[in-house]
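Lab channel / #folding
Pinned by the channel admin:
"Please post every new chain as: sequence first, then the structure tokens as a reply. Keep commentary short and put observations after the output so the thread stays searchable."

First post following the new format, from NK:
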Amino acid sequence: MEDQAMEECRAVYLTAEDLRIAASILYNAYHDDPFFIETLFSGDQAQYEQKLRGAIREELNELWQQEQALIGMFVGDRLIGVACIVTQQVPLGEARFWHWRLKMLLSTGWYSTQALINKENQIIESLPSGQCGILQFIAISNVEQGKGYGSKLIDAVLSWCDEQLHLDGIGVFANHTAHIELFSRHNFETIEQLTIGQVNGELLFYRGVSNE
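Reply from TO:
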């Protein structure tokens, strides 16, 4: 039955109707992420969770408005995984639009918004060129983890990247050993050790086939 589900899984672009479920999947996946805990947690768990929901919601909506690649992994009609890619064709880091800053300020506060901007700045400065994508989010729903869907979703991201002839590749910041190993198995290479805030991790990079 599990093999059949794997065969039936498909990766397609998300629609506006998928964003609410996508936000829920990302919220659960990133709930214990060290960067978000450092950035958003100030001693109140309920407030932290509210800020995290807000940050993910606003970023998803912004990526949707900017027509960035939001890839969903479906089994039948069920959305079970999400990957969000942003390219440097849209303003990032210090160049973020004022309306994004305002919405993020209202959702998370000044310190958290600045920390998110600083993270993007560090990643952008470490990428090989200005023609690279950044994997902002990637997650499989909690109940579907450990079944191989994560690898399928990464494969979908790489296929998308290979089709973008203007892109030199995709970078992703990872701070968990298992995640670093997973990306490494999919031809990502560590290009720099980064410390973002107090969180140590690696910036990994996949070089698109047109740039090999």
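NK: The longest strand covers residues 78-87.
TO: also worth noting, The chain has a mean pLDDT of 92.
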